[in-house]
Structure formats: structure tokens, C-alpha cells
Amino acid sequence: MEKMWIGALGLSSLLGIFGSLVAAENATLAHVEIDGNAFFDSKTGERFYIRGVDYQPGGSSNLTDPLADIEICKRDVPKFQDLGLNAVRVYTVDNTQDHTECMQMLAEAGVYVILDVNTPDSSISRSNPGCSYNADYLQTVFATIDVFANYSNVLGFFAGNEVINDETNTNTATYVKAVVRDMKKYMRARNYRQIPVGYSAADVTENVQLAAHYFNCGDDADARVDMFGVNDYSWCGKSSFQVSGYSTKVKAYSNYSVPLFLSEFGCTKVTPRPFTEIGSIYSTQMSSVFSGGLVYEYSNEANNYGLVQIDSDTSVTTLQDYQNLKSEFESTQNPTGDGNYAKNNNVSTCPTYEAGKWEANNTLPAMPSAASAFFSKGAGEPMGTGYPTQFRCGDTNLSDYFTADAASTTQSASLSSSSASEGSSSSSASSSSSATSATSSTQSSSKSKGNAVAAAEVPTLFRAMAHVWNYVL
Ligand SMILES: *[C@@H]1O[C@H](CO)[C@@H](O)[C@H](O)[C@H]1NC(C)=O
Ligand SMILES: *[C@@H]1O[C@H](CO)[C@@H](O)[C@H](O)[C@H]1NC(C)=O
Ligand SMILES: *[C@@H]1O[C@H](CO)[C@@H](O)[C@H](O)[C@H]1NC(C)=O
Ligand SMILES: *[C@@H]1O[C@H](CO)[C@@H](O)[C@H](O)[C@H]1NC(C)=O
Ligand SMILES: *[C@@H]1O[C@H](CO)[C@@H](O)[C@H](O)[C@H]1NC(C)=O
Ligand SMILES: *[C@@H]1O[C@H](CO)[C@@H](O)[C@H](O)[C@H]1NC(C)=O
Ligand SMILES: *[C@@H]1O[C@H](CO)[C@@H](O)[C@H](O)[C@H]1NC(C)=O
């Protein structure tokens, strides 16, 4: 990809080479790549198991971008090293901010980032998924990709987190899968590294496996996930491989063709948590099917899942869970060799539609037509968090993201014919929020977007509910 990228830039390649010479002193981590159902270090060729934590200090109620504040990174990155981590998952970032220093510090510490591209205000809505899948939404997703695509220590992106969270909203999977497709096509159109794209599924027994197969099925390789995360809280206290149900899951997913990992784990029914599942996750009991996971979560928030208590921007107090996790990681080596991973080219069979059980559509909506402009121009100006897109049906006004000048000077990448889709998939229902003039001023860095934002602004209460419905961290 690197070579292709330089080639594609033609004249700019000299600059690119010069740039990388200048950057030589900066540590870069080798990309993590995928083969079969496993991750590998692209430099050493060794199997890569995620040893991570979920990381969103402040949680969803006090949303802060932990990768944009070097003080916060200086506080936390040494703790990641002390715990022996190689990855963190971040649920929301602010795409208007500069993340270079923190990403660099993480790279130097050997830590990869798995990044959710959504924000509470800009994500697929359970109440009206078709409407929320619109060009303004895709602009925020693509702008976040623009900001992070160049860091070698981005392990992957999540196109969605727990959007399906019970049996009544399985239809939302259709739109999340369309976002997976659009993200992968966007990275190709922009000549970025093809960073893996996945989905992080809620621990819903009735449909988590249906979801896993749905996201990995069908003829369109772009629409299929590159990796799949399951949030799983089944190992409580000093459980076991059998009692926790892990053994059943290893069997159930044994024919799954892409990397699978625990995108959240750490049941709190028994506290302090002994984290004895570490011994199982990083053993041959699991390694043929799972590639590690992320403990929920680094900082202690209202729901009491933390490893550390945050005292201030410069200090944290480690909790007993932290010590327990650290000692479990210390005493648990990865399986030797390739851990019996499987190279299985059989993608999943698409689950069939069944009312009340699995209502996702195996025919995906076309990308909203206005969004194809981003493929040729890039996403334009990032809009930050607190930029509500969920209730905007239909196509966007592109002038909101591009100044005339920027639009004419941005480099145009060659487009494959399939990426410029026709028509809009979004329903033509008028925005339910446009009638209200109530504007809430939530804490955010969103740039003002004139009338477009005002029209989409929704009452605080409604937004708060949207947070609960759609974005449970
Ligand atoms: C990506 O990194 C290369 C080499 O360091 C640099 O030349 C290029 O400008 C970067 N691209 C972006 C979009 O930041
Ligand atoms: C929200 O997070 C910021 C930054 O970490 C912190 O300074 C502030 O005190 C927090 N506010 C609340 C209400 O927790
Ligand atoms: C190298 O890292 C420093 C410190 O994080 C950063 O300021 C600088 O922009 C980086 N250089 C390049 C070329 O990425
Ligand atoms: C792939 O599918 C074929 C046909 O169903 C089957 O025979 C084969 O065992 C499968 N391969 C794997 C690795 O599951
Ligand atoms: C694996 O098995 C499940 C059912 O247990 C099925 O839905 C899925 O399509 C299978 N995948 C492959 C690759 O055969
Ligand atoms: C699936 O999508 C197709 C194309 O948009 C549509 O014709 C069909 O009615 C949808 N099926 C269901 C069950 O919603
Ligand atoms: C798009 O936005 C620009 C600037 O806000 C405005 O001048 C223009 O009339 C808008 N176009 C449409 C079709 O709404």
C-alpha cells in the first residue's frame, strides 16, 4: 500500500520521501495485519493478541477526547505500559483536534489504538436508522478517518458499537454494514492504508452470533467486516473456561473467517475482579478463534468498572482491579507459534430475515449520493463532537465542508465506478427535529454550520435519550 500511495501521488512523492526522512526519528509501530482469523505484526510476522483496555476517561457523560490532550496521555500511557498493554480502544474522539503527540507517545510505548468513528451525536440512530445514515453523518466518519489514517498504530476502526442491543433493533445492522462498506471504499479512494474495519457487538445472547455472521457475509468484500468484536461479561469472579461459557463460544465461532476478539470484558458481579479469564483468553483454549481483548475499562466512572480512579489531569490512583489485572498479564504469556489460527476463506452465510428475531436486510442501501464527493475531495472540514447528524435525512449541502478554494485545490483520487452510487438511500421523511427551534448548548467543539446545524438541533432531553439508546459506553 505504501508503494502504491507514493506512486499515486506522482509529483508529491518527492515530498513524501522527504517527509518520512524528517520523521525518521519518530517511533512508528509496524502495522498490525490480518491473515485468516488472526492478527499479525507486519514486521516480525508474529501473531498479535490484543492486550488492551477500553479507554474513555469521563465516559459518555463528560465526553473528552483522551488522545488530544498530551497531559492526559502523559498521565495514562505510563500506566498502560505498567499494565503490559499493547492496545487501547477509544469510543469517541474529536476530529477537529490534533492527535499527533498522543499517537506518537502511544507508538513509543508499543500501544495500538482501536477507534470507534462515531460520536454520541453522529451515529446510526436506533429510532430512525435510515434517516441517520446520511451524507452529513458520513462526512464526520470520513473526517475522523482523515485524521487517523496516517498513524501506523491505528489497529482498526469500529463502524459501530452496540447499535443492535436487543431483539427489537436488529434492522439497524443494515445501515451499520453500509457504513462498513463506505469506510472501506473511502480509504481505498483516498489511497490510505486499508485499516481494518469492524463492529463491536453487545452481549445479547439472542443475536450476537447472528450479527457476527451477518457482518461477515455476502459477495461484496467491502461490506464485510475485517474483524469482529464481542462485548462479553460472562466470566465473573474465579470462573472457568467451561462455566463462563467461553468454551461454547469458541465452538460456535470456530468456523468464523475473520479475527474475533473481546471488545469489552470484565464482569463486576464479583469485586475486586480477579481477572482469571486472562489465563484462558491468552491460551490455546481460545487462541484458535479469539485474538485477545480489551478490559472494560481504564478509568472508574459512575458504573464502577474502573482500574484507576482519576484524581486530576495529572494523577490517578490505581485500584485493586489494576493490581490484579497487572499480575494476571504478567503471569500469562501468549501461546507459542501461531496459536492454531485458521486460514478459512469461507465467509459466513447470511442469516435469513425473520420478523422479531433477525430483521437486517441482505441488500444494503446505496451510499447517499452527495457523499461520493468526499471520495474525490476528502471529507473537508471536520466538525467535531456535538455535531448532530442523526435526524438529517437526505443529502447534505457540501459547501458546508469545503471552501471554494479548498475544493478546487484538493487532490482528486481516482474513483472506482462502484463508489459513486446513485440516488439516496435515506428516507425522504422530513426531519423530526426541524420543527423545533430549541437549541441545546452541550459542551462540544463543533464548528458552527449556520442554518444546517440550527435545523438539526434537537432538544436536550431528546438528545440525552438518544445518548442512552444509541451510545452506551
Ligand atoms: C502521512 O505521512 C506521510 C509521511 O510521514 C506524510 O508525508 C503525509 O503528508 C501524511 N499524510 C497526511 C494526510 O497526514
Ligand atoms: C470533565 O472532564 C474534564 C477533563 O478531564 C474535567 O476537568 C472536568 O472536571 C470533568 N467534569 C465533570 C463534571 O466530571
Ligand atoms: C514527531 O513527533 C513529534 C512529537 O510528538 C511531533 O511533534 C512531530 O510532528 C512528529 N513528526 C512527524 C513528521 O510526524
Ligand atoms: C469451507 O467450506 C467448505 C464447503 O462447505 C467445507 O468443506 C470446508 O471445510 C470449509 N473450510 C473451513 C476451513 O471451514
Ligand atoms: C458457521 O456456522 C454458522 C452456524 O453455526 C453458520 O451460520 C455460518 O454461516 C458458518 N460459517 C461458515 C463459514 O461456514
Ligand atoms: C431489503 O432492501 C430491499 C432494497 O432496498 C427492499 O426492496 C426490500 O423490501 C428490503 N427487505 C426488507 C425485508 O426490508
Ligand atoms: C448551501 O449553503 C450555502 C452556504 O451556507 C448557501 O449559500 C447555499 O444557498 C446552500 N445551498 C443549498 C442548496 O441549500
UniProtKB/TrEMBL annotation:
UniProt membrane topology term: Lipid-anchor; GPI-anchor
Key word Transferase present: yes
EC number: 2.4.1.-
Residues in the signal sequence: 1-24
Biological processes annotated in GO: fungal-type cell wall (1->3)-beta-D-glucan biosynthetic process; fungal-type cell wall organization
Keywords, ordered alphabetically: Cell wall biogenesis/degradation, Disulfide bond, Glycoprotein, GPI-anchor, Lipoprotein, Membrane, Signal, Transferase
GO molecular function: 1,3-beta-glucanosyltransferase activity
First-listed, main subcellular location of the protein, grouped into a coarse class: other
Family annotation (InterPro entries): GH, Glucanosyltransferase
A single cellular component GO annotation: plasma membrane
Subcellular location: Cell envelope; Cell membrane; Membrane
Pfam families documented for this protein: Glyco_hydro_72
Region (Disordered): 415-450
Compositionally biased intervals (Low complexity): 415-448
The family this protein is said to belong to: Belongs to the glycosyl hydrolase 72 family.
Function: Splits internally a 1,3-beta-glucan molecule and transfers the newly generated reducing end (the donor) to the non-reducing end of another 1,3-beta-glucan molecule (the acceptor) forming a 1,3-beta linkage, resulting in the elongation of 1,3-beta-glucan chains in the cell wall.
Protein name in the entry: 1,3-beta-glucanosyltransferase
Species assigned in the record: Lachancea meyersii CBS 8951
